[in-house]
Amino acid sequence: MTGAAAPDDDLDLTLEGVDLVTLPKVSLHDHLDGGLRPETILELADEAGLETPRDEPEALGEWFVASAGSGDLPTYLKTFDQTVAVMQTAEALERVAREFVEDSVDDGVVYVEARWAPEQHLAQGLSLDEAVEAVASGLEQGMRAATAFGARIEAVQLLTALRQNDRSLDIAELALRHREDGVVGFDLAGPELGFPPSDHRAALDLLAAEFMPVTLHAGEADGLDSIVSALVDGRALRLGHGTRLTEDVDLVEDADGTTVAEIGDVAGWVRDRGIVLEMCPSSNLQTGALTGDLTDHPLDLFYQLDFPVTVNVDNRLQSGTTLSEEWARVAEAFDYGVDDLAVLALNAVEGAFLPAPERQELADRVLAGFDRARQG
């Protein structure tokens, strides 16, 4: 296969003698329009007669990482103007989706949910259904190519509605129309502050009535109220990011001087009901969802408190990362071993929008892959 982003020069992708790239991974929070190869952007832009901020792949990749590292979510989101602009034809969507799968395979990913917003890809005449069909074709091409290389991956779609727009009901209906064609769930993305899930109650009620799984961005750029709306109005089974769930967890010292966690009703619901947290460490640093450095990320706090935490890339291009690199960073920051990464991987399996028998089969594959890696 081809194309996965090169790892950081100083980032060690081995842990306890295991090559992290070879470990089987499940990617739940992975934006299609945030995973393009820089060279693909340049080629598609040239075909479409569009200008790009840089003319060479390496320089363009560096531009995306630098531009996304503003510490502000709306500014971070502006970088998507460049990627979405070159994804306006069926051929471009097919190519991007195919390469998305190829790059996932190169990173050891065995299951990926590609989330994207079809409403952003209609500028050159595609219908919503045609856009979804083009991505489905590209994902299928990528899976077939993986099989030809002796690899195995399942790549499906999560359809995203933009919370600042008014097309969420259209996108919910679109997801339902294509649920037999590889669309497994629904998402809300875009500026979080001021655009709560409750604004999209009609779409979310329809999805609940039709038993379509929902994961919502919440607790990234807004606080606990946004998470509550995702849980109550959205019936969310997963939370995209969820970093500000810490607002409902207090660390206090008991009479013996031991630090204990007091977990509030919202955080308790998330933990006790198994609502999966889709955490994206590098992205959270870029957008300002996290202050300090990676050691300050609440991922480890939630992990130690037995929340169903997962590690994700969010946007490989904007963060200049891969899932293997995110695992390596998390392992270094929190002194995790391979067994800890296995727990994170199985958390992701449990959160996958698959029927229970398929999740069990995926869990068996992941465990077998970890066993093989440990044995060398």
Automatic annotation (TrEMBL):
<keyword id="KW-0862">Zinc</keyword>
<feature type="domain" description="Adenosine deaminase">
    <location>
        <begin position="24"/>
        <end position="367"/>
    </location>
</feature>
<dbReference type="GO" id="GO:0046103">
    <property type="term" value="P:inosine biosynthetic process"/>
</dbReference>
<dbReference type="GO" id="GO:0046872">
    <property type="term" value="F:metal ion binding"/>
</dbReference>
<comment type="similarity">
    <text>Belongs to the metallo-dependent hydrolases superfamily. Adenosine and AMP deaminases family.</text>
</comment>
<dbReference type="InterPro" id="IPR032466">
    <property type="entry name" value="Metal_Hydrolase"/>
</dbReference>
<keyword id="KW-0479">Metal-binding</keyword>
<dbReference type="InterPro" id="IPR006330">
    <property type="entry name" value="Ado/ade_deaminase"/>
</dbReference>
<protein>
    <recommendedName>
        <fullName>adenosine deaminase</fullName>
        <ecNumber>3.5.4.4</ecNumber>
    </recommendedName>
</protein>
<dbReference type="Pfam" id="PF00962">
    <property type="entry name" value="A_deaminase"/>
</dbReference>
<dbReference type="GO" id="GO:0005829">
    <property type="term" value="C:cytosol"/>
</dbReference>
<keyword id="KW-0378">Hydrolase</keyword>
<dbReference type="GO" id="GO:0043103">
    <property type="term" value="P:hypoxanthine salvage"/>
</dbReference>
<dbReference type="InterPro" id="IPR001365">
    <property type="entry name" value="A_deaminase_dom"/>
</dbReference>
<dbReference type="GO" id="GO:0004000">
    <property type="term" value="F:adenosine deaminase activity"/>
</dbReference>
<dbReference type="GO" id="GO:0006154">
    <property type="term" value="P:adenosine catabolic process"/>
</dbReference>
